From TrEMBL, chain A:
Domain ABC transporter: 2-238
Entry keyword annotation includes Transport: yes
PANTHER family reported for this sequence: INTERMEMBRANE PHOSPHOLIPID TRANSPORT SYSTEM ATP-BINDING PROTEIN MLAF, PROTEIN TRIGALACTOSYLDIACYLGLYCEROL 3, CHLOROPLASTIC
Taxonomic source organism: Neotamlana laminarinivorans
GO molecular function annotation: ATP binding; ATP hydrolysis activity
Listed name of the protein: ATP-binding cassette domain-containing protein
Keywords: ATP-binding, Nucleotide-binding, Transport
Automatic annotation (TrEMBL), chain B:
One Pfam short name: MlaE
Single annotated GO MF: phospholipid transporter activity
UniProtKB keywords: Membrane, Transmembrane, Transmembrane helix
Any single GO CC term annotated in Swiss-Prot or TrEMBL for this entry: ATP-binding cassette (ABC) transporter complex
InterPro entries: Permease_MalE
Plastid among keywords: no
PANTHER family in the cross-refs: ABC TRANSPORTER PERMEASE PROTEIN-RELATED, PROTEIN TRIGALACTOSYLDIACYLGLYCEROL 1, CHLOROPLASTIC
TM ranges: 38-63, 83-104, 136-165, 185-208, 220-239
Protein name in UniProt: ABC transporter permease
Lineage: Bacteria, Pseudomonadati, Bacteroidota, Flavobacteriia, Flavobacteriales
Length: 255, 245
């Protein structure tokens, strides 16, 4: 579980995060949504420790990150898996080497043990025959799956995904969403996803945090988001006619 | 102010590079790969340039000596001095700033743009140690490249001298042996060692701290080449003044 309390972050005079307090629960897919410029990426980078913040705290299973020693921080980071928006695979390595990388860096496993683990996770993301391909030879959906495999190979406790569906077709997006949700439940990971994709919100949003101009405007789940009367949320989530209809049908069915 | 900020950030980067080392088994592979990319991969172009520029230095020297009072072995002597003191350590380093420096800046810059450096940081890896330190160690072999450039420069001069008919082999060999000072070699290698550090760190700095997209990677490579060359030329002046002046 990740607990965030009163998080403030500024760049010069621009106050980006204005006191965010929320909790991301273990074994659930937690989504951060909001318009462009709402502070989602900055929030995610603060959670990852890539940005320092002026005020507030982030606790990983009760351990407040900013109060930890460098070694303790390193231990927490070794328990984090991250799927970047552009996958961020290392171009000089094959797909298998990319997935093996965290094992080589952080474990003392033998080569055969590492190879077995890589085979297992690549199979888990349905990429059992892509070991020797270079990232440039893989499609966008494959690259995302490799990024997920790399993120989970070292059995992380926390999984972060920055817009995992960006640039993917709707069918592949659903595959990626389902994969993330299955992995989250299977390994009881605390998963935090930064997303623009309303399909993801409706499908896998077990907890949803809506940001607006650096403030937490609303939080709930894929069920409560249909019922909310918060106009900021409804204007954002139900901006298309399709989603307006979906909402109307849901409310009619659930009267 | 910006210059001071950059200089400060450069020294902080250099210090950070030595902190929190990467696992030795991984680092060993990175160093070997960088030796291959930066040192072995440069031998071809360095050899080609050194051989022909050595030849040109000889021809220019021979053509400018038209007095019968000047001994013919001076062609070999002048070639040796030019090649060992300036051409090999400094001129080759400027070429390396273009070849190796641009490669370092663009490869690290691309990793920055595509979030690969963020991926390393998220994993808790000291990305500066992982990316820059192996290049720093690989370029400690740079004096080896320069010694090859020295040898081939003098050899190129000899070939031009003999086949162009500017002097005899005996005169040329006498020239390259005349008033040889070991300290000149030491001076040249001290310069080379300093330039190797510059070649590893300044391009890394511009790649690591670049912001933006693909266009900025190109701009960062150009800026890195300009500043690496400027620093090499300035340090060349200072070291020459300190050691030979």
């Amino acid at each position: 579980m990740i607990e965030v309390k009163n998080l403030h972050k500024s760049f010069g005079n621009a106050h980006i995060l204005k006191g965010i307090t929320t909790t991301f629960e273990k074994g659930k897919t937690n989504l951060i949504i909001g318009q462009s410029g709402s502070g989602k990426t900055v929030f995610l980078k603060c959670l990852l420790g890539l940005f320092d913040y002026e005020q507030g705290s982030i606790a990983y299973d009760g351990k407040i990150f900013s109060k930890l020693s460098e070694d303790e921080k390193r231990n927490i980071r070794a328990e984090i898996g991250m799927v970047f928006q552009g996958s961020a695979l290392f171009d000089s390595m094959t797909i298998a080497e990319n997935v093996m990388f965290p094992l080589k860096m952080f474990t003392k496993q033998s080569k055969s043990e590492m190879e077995d683990r890589v085979d297992f996770v690549l199979k888990r993301v349905n990429l059992d025959d892509a070991h020797n391909k270079m990232p440039s030879e893989a499609s966008g959906g494959m690259q995302k799956r490799v990024a997920i495999a790399r993120a989970i190979v070292n059995k992380p406790k926390y999984l972060f995904c920055d817009e995992p569906n960006s640039g993917l077709d709707p069918r592949t997006s659903i595959v990626i969403d389902n994969l993330i949700q299955e992995i989250t439940e299977e390994y009881q990971i605390t998963t935090v996803i930064n997303s623009h994709d309303m399909n993801s919100v409706m499908e896998i949003g077990e907890k949803i945090v809506f940001l607006k101009l650096g403030l937490k405007e609303w939080e709930g789940s894929k069920h409560t988001i249909f019922k909310t009367d918060n106009t900021s949320v409804t204007d954002f989530v139900y901006s298309s006619n399709l989603f307006k209809k979906v909402r109307r049908m849901y409310l009619e069915d659930n009267v | 102010m910006t210059y001071l900020k950059n200089i400060g950030a450069y020294f902080l980067m250099t210090a950070e590079m030595f902190r929190k080392p990467t696992k030795w088994s991984v680092m060993k592979q990175l160093i070997l790969k960088d030796i291959d990319d930066l040192i072995i991969g440069s031998l071809g172009i360095v050899s080609f340039i050194a051989f022909f520029v050595g030849g040109v230095v000889t021809i220019q020297t021979a053509l400018n000596i038209d007095s019968p009072l000047i001994p013919k072995y001076l062609v070999g002597f002048a070639t040796r001095q030019s090649v060992i003191l300036e051409f090999a350590p400094t001129f080759i380093s400027i070429i390396m700033a273009g070849k190796v420096g641009s490669f370092i800046t663009s490869s690290i810059g691309t990793m920055r743009v595509t979030e690969q450096i963020d991926a390393l940081e998220v994993m808790g890896i000291n990305s500066l140690n992982y990316l820059v330190f192996p290049k720093f160690i690989a370029l400690l072999l740079y004096p080896f490249v320069i010694s090859i450039a020295m040898f081939l420069g003098i050899l190129g001069g000899m070939a031009a001298c003999i086949y162009g008919g500017y002097s005899t082999l005996a005169d040329y060999v006498t020239g390259i042996q005349t008033e040889f000072e070991t300290f000149h070699i030491i001076y040249a290698f001290i310069k080379t060692f300093v330039f190797a550090i510059i070649l590893a760190t300044i391009p890394s700095y511009y790649g690591y701290y670049m912001k933006g997209g693909a266009l900025e990677v190109g701009k960062a490579s150009t800026t890195s080449f300009v500043w690496t060359s400027v620093v090499i030329i300035l340090l060349n002046y200072l070291l020459t003044d300190m050691m030979l002046g």
